[in-house]
Amino acid sequence: SLRYQLIEEVRVGTRIADLADDAKLKAKYPQNILQQLQYGFLSQPTTNISVGTTNGLLFTRGRIDRDTICPGMRVCEVHLDIAVKPVAYFQIIKVTVEIVDLNDNKPEFPEPEITLSILESATPESGFVLPSAMDNDGPGFSIQRYELITDANKSKFSLKVNKNLDGSMDVRLVLERRLDREAQDRYSIKVIAYDGGSTPRSGSLSVNIHVIDTNDNEPVFDQTTYGVSVIENVPIRTVIATVHAADHDQGPNGLVRYGFSKHTTDKHGHLFGIDQESGEIYVKGIIDHEESDIYHLMVVAQDLGPGSLPTDATVVIHVQDINDNKPEITINTITEPNTDRAEIEEDSPPGTFVAHVSVTDKDDGVNGQFTCSLSERSFTLERRFPTEYQIVTNQTLDREKRASYSLAIVCRDHGKDKKISIEHLRVSVLDRNDNYPIFTERTYTASLIENNFVGKFIVHVNATDADVNENARVMYQLDGTRDSSFFTIDGDGKIRAKLSIDREVRRKFQFKVWAFDRGSPRRTGTADISIIVEDINDNSPVFLFPTLYNHSLTISNRVPVGFAITQIRAHDDDTREAAQLAYQITQGNDDEVFDLDPRYGTLTLKSSLGGISHRRYDLVLAVSDHGSPQQTAQGILNI
């Protein structure tokens, strides 16, 4: 905790302290870290004091008037909590600034002049209450003494000053010698009040005294000081004490009426009242121990006779505490004060700061002591000071397993009738790009019929990423190999043909597809693509024998029936049914001398050639595939 003194009424902008230096931050951190630090109040002070956000200088931003900030207080202190951010260097600097009083107010009486009536029968040493002067300065410069100024009449009066428990002064004019109204019925005196400055300031009261004849007894209280104890929050109109004063005169001169002094009425009249006839003191407002635990009331008694002489007594009221206040919980995060929401990045290490928690209880003793706990096991509530905690992570958080947490901060006081407060903090786990895109299949196999049109859809690939937002947005790309150059892929993962493909040129394509997310660092997933080119019947069979240049053969008329003369051969570049061939003789075999195996193309002798000495056969051959539409080729064989 840092302490400073500040003289009131200094000029605006006066520098109070360099927190970075005094809190030893300049010694602790290098210059590049100091430039990152930011300073701010946990709660905005009511006084005109500010802190530099980036340099940590504490300075005044308006008028500093101690008499307004701490009226009547002996010591005037302003307590400040300054938070140092960002979270990596978070700490709280506790600062106490004592406002030093100046003697900038002079004593003033309620009125500059009063008239006082005194019975000529008044006995020497009789006292007459005079109004007290007020000085708005602190106790050090408050009113210290009174002085009586008279001329030739000095020997008739003196001044008696009593200091009360509440700090006020009772000023009485004391009669030194008997008065003789017939000799002199008027006196004029002056009372001077001086404050406590090194060069005291003063205020004056002119007192005009009229000497009259009236009753000569004043009320006398049973005791000069009454003590009473009362619990706080006592119901309105409850009688808490009774005072009594006796007057030995008779008739109206002996009837006593009660009231409070002007000072008591001004200061405590909203809380206490007194019955004028019975002297019963009762409660008018809410008595709160946390506001004040003791009250001093000055009661004045006066009879109803002419020129009545007032007398007074003091009533001291002690207020007993009850457990009527719950702990008050305030949550501050790095981003904003007094909030119910916080954010933290996933994968942050255990012990990472989440929020600062301040707890206060206005009660006293055990009623004002408390213990706090946290509902969620993934976080820990650490006590840093008697009234301050911080919430930190207890383990590494994974957003893909749980994206948010609802924390309940529960504080219980130690009183007999325990008071409980609960505040909730919602912690959102921010995504980090810690997941890779994953394809729904490791290998995608698809087919493509040859002679396709450009842009033909082939296969749809899909990859998902367990992250969110940009970290989960997936882009696709082919691997850039020769096989992949025949295809394109769009943003939805649809692969299409870039060219028309001939199966007879290329029957199969294999390449990889990549999936990238848009996070940082970028994560990548891969899958294999296998595309089979399907055949269509776009090729006719071609004879390998006979051909244009090789289509004749000679056989003997002695070959037996069933003799395999030759093998008719053909080829088709298509596949499957489109490449399965069937052979037949379409012309030149009217007498069925030859037989042609339709499947294997074997040409055999079906009839005997024994009776033929010389002959030429011109066979027209056909070969057809089984595709759709069927393709056919013709050839000529000369035998």
Automatic annotation (TrEMBL):
Q: Which SMART domains match?
A: CA
Q: InterPro entries under this entry?
A: Cadherin-like_dom, Cadherin-like_sf, Cadherin_CS, Cadherin_N, Protocadherin/Cadherin-CA
Cadherin domain location: 8-109, 110-221, 222-329, 336-439, 440-543, 547-639
Q: Keyword set for this entry?
A: Calcium, Cell adhesion, Cell membrane, Glycoprotein, Membrane, Repeat, Signal, Transmembrane, Transmembrane helix
One of the protein's GO biological processes: homophilic cell adhesion via plasma membrane adhesion molecules
State the compartments where it is located: Cell membrane
Q: How does it sit in the membrane?
A: Single-pass type I membrane protein
The UniProt entry, under Pfam families, shows: Cadherin, Cadherin_2
Protein origin, superkingdom? Eukaryota
Any one Gene Ontology molecular-function term assigned to this protein's record: calcium ion binding
Which is a Gene Ontology cellular component entry for this protein?
plasma membrane
Q: Keyword Cell membrane, does the record have it?
A: yes
Q: Which PROSITE patterns match?
A: CADHERIN_1, CADHERIN_2
- Can you name this protein? Cadherin domain-containing protein
The protein's organism comes out as: Capitella teleta
